[in-house]
């Protein structure tokens, strides 16, 4: 098996898929798109020249989130292209924390579901569709204002399992979700020795983001915010808590991060058991990342960014690679629509059509084969949106083709959706420096923070 190390090619931010209410319409989802231009098709002949091929056994290991992760130091690269295999559904990261059993590992499902821009009155249904489809990684946030509704679905899921969810959906959709769930669980290789609700909670990964308003120099305020989220969701710990945005100030950012470290390690003044298992950051560029390292604090486990083939943030990802920080592709990037990078989008459409998948599914595969975490999203107002939730799950990206459950064997399904080295190379060349200001999206900041088309939250110093 060949693994190509990549320090300079990056995630594509996920899919985004279905975001009606902006400029995205059903045809933009990529379902039955027309074959693109001959020029786009011709570009698929570009070849990839692999380099730095190594065996998995040759990859060095590192402690993720350790204060010993030297900043700007050559350390193991944790993002890898696996262009000839079906990557595992779980990314296992070693961490140092009293809250974790020995050996200390954090298992993060590679494909999650994000509630960015999901209306509160739709969140309960979206959560049910995601969990029924085998998505056990939920990307939630105070700023999304939907935790109460998500908590209702989580309580049902933990008590009864997925078969009690989405019962009002049409049989055709239930078939897609259940096929996706079955494939996902068959490849999961769970480490849990528990049963029932305890096992389901152990396999559920809840990743929560603190808003800018919740950031504080008062550690008690941070603790109260975390406890309030736990109570709203109906759980007794959170798998990851992230700072949603660096757009506060140096003192507040660092104090908030330090308070989260204390909560994770059980070092806060209450001396209670840890209530968070890991710490992440979102939209962090080099400046705020280096603040954490310079302060001698453990580095975050994950940095979630607006990362796409159109703006790969190579400098940030290179730093994360060198310092053992996993990268997650946020759900808020706009990858289609009238203002999108049309030529590149047409080429991606051609690649997706060849495989009988949507553009979104092709991007999920691209992310998986790069070794990244990704959190696609979709609404649930229309049937095509609800189907997209199943399609874009880890299992759905393999077993659902052309909107139906594929009839061929699992091995043949996997082989048919894997992106070739040539296709991976083409997508890697999509970079047009597509900035957040051009996207017109807000995730972790307010309109007043945006200063123009070339504005990017990762540029904050």
Give a quick rundown of the structure.
With 461 residues, the chain is of the alpha/beta class. Helix content is 36%, strand content 12%.
Q: Your description of this structure?
A:
The N terminus is likely disordered. The strands form 5 sheets. The protein has an 8-stranded parallel β-sheet with strand order 7-8-9-10-11-12-13-14. Strands 3-1-4 form a 3-stranded antiparallel β-sheet. It has one domain: Alpha-Beta Barrel (TIM Barrel). The chain is globular, with a radius of gyration of 21 Å. Helix 2 runs parallel beside helix 3, helix 2 crosses helix 4 and helix 4 runs parallel beside helix 12. Helix 6 links the parallel strand 9 and strand 10. It has 16 helices and 17 strands. The chain starts with a strand and ends in a 22-residue tail after the last helix. The chain is of the alpha/beta class. 36% of the residues lie in helices and 12% in strands.
Average of pLDDT: 80
Ends apart, CA distance between termini: 41 Å
Rg (CA only): 21 Å
Please mark out the parts with pLDDT under 50 across 5 or more consecutive residues, or reply none. Answer: 1-73, 334-338
The helix tally amounts to: 16
Tell me the fraction of residues in β-strands, as a range: 5-15%
Give the overall shape, derived from the CA principal axes: globular
Structural class: alpha/beta
Assembly status: single chain
Question: What's the CATH topology label?
Answer: TIM Barrel
Q: Characterize the main sheet.
A: 8 strands, parallel
Question: What order do the strands of the largest sheet run in, or round the barrel if closed?
Answer: 7-8-9-10-11-12-13-14
Classify the helix fraction into a percent range: 25-40%
CATH architecture: Alpha-Beta Barrel
**Overall number of strands:** 17
Count of individual domains: 1
């Amino acid at each position: 098996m060949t693994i190509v190390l990549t320090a300079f090619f990056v995630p594509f931010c996920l899919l985004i898929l279905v975001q009606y209410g902006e400029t995205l319409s059903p045809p933009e989802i990529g379902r039955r798109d027309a074959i693109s231009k001959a020029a786009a098709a011709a570009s698929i002949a570009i070849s990839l020249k692999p380099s730095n091929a190594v065996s998995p056994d040759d990859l060095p290991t590192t402690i993720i989130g350790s204060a010993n992760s030297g900043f700007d130091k050559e350390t193991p690269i944790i993002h890898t292209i696996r262009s000839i295999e079906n990557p595992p559904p779980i990314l296992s990261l070693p961490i140092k924390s009293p809250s974790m059993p020995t050996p200390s590992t954090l298992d993060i499902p590679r494909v999650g579901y994000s509630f960015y821009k999901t209306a509160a009155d739709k969140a309960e249904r979206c959560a049910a569709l995601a969990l029924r489809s085998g998505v056990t990684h939920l990307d939630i946030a105070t700023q999304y204002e939907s935790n109460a509704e998500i908590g209702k679905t989580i309580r049902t899921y933990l008590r009864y399992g997925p078969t009690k969810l989405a019962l009002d959906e049409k049989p055709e959709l239930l078939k897609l979700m259940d096929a996706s769930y079955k494939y996902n669980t068959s490849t999961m290789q769970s480490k849990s020795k528990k049963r029932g609700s305890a096992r389901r909670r152990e396999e559920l990964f809840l990743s929560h983001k603190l808003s800018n308003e919740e950031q504080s120099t008062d550690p008690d305020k941070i603790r109260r915010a975390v406890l309030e989220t736990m109570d709203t969701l109906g759980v007794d710990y959170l798998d990851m808590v992230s700072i949603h945005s660096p757009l506060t100030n140096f003192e507040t950012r660092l104090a908030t991060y330090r308070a989260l470290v204390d909560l994770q390690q059980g070092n806060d003044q209450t001396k209670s058991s840890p209530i968070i298992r890991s710490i992440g950051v979102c939209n962090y560029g080099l400046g705020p990342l280096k603040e954490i390292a310079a302060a001698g604090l453990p580095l975050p486990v994950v940095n979630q960014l607006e990362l796409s083939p159109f703006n790969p943030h190579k400098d940030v990802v290179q730093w994360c690679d060198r310092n053992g920080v996993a990268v997650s592709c946020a759900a808020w990037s706009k990858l289609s629509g009238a203002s999108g990078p049309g030529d590149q989008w047409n080429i991606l459409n051609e690649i997706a059509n060849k495989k009988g998948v949507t553009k979104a599914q092709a991007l999920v595969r691209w992310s998986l084969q790069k070794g990244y975490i990704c959190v696609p999203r979709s609404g649930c107002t229309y049937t095509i949106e609800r189907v997209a939730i199943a399609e874009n799950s880890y299992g759905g990206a393999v077993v659902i083709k052309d909107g139906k459950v594929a009839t061929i064997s699992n091995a043949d399904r996997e082989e048919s959706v894997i992106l070739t080295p040539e296709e991976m190379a083409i997508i890697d060349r999509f970079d047009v420096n597509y900035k957040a200001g051009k996207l017109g999206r807000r995730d972790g900041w307010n309109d007043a923070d945006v200063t123009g088309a070339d504005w990017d939250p990762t540029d904050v110093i």
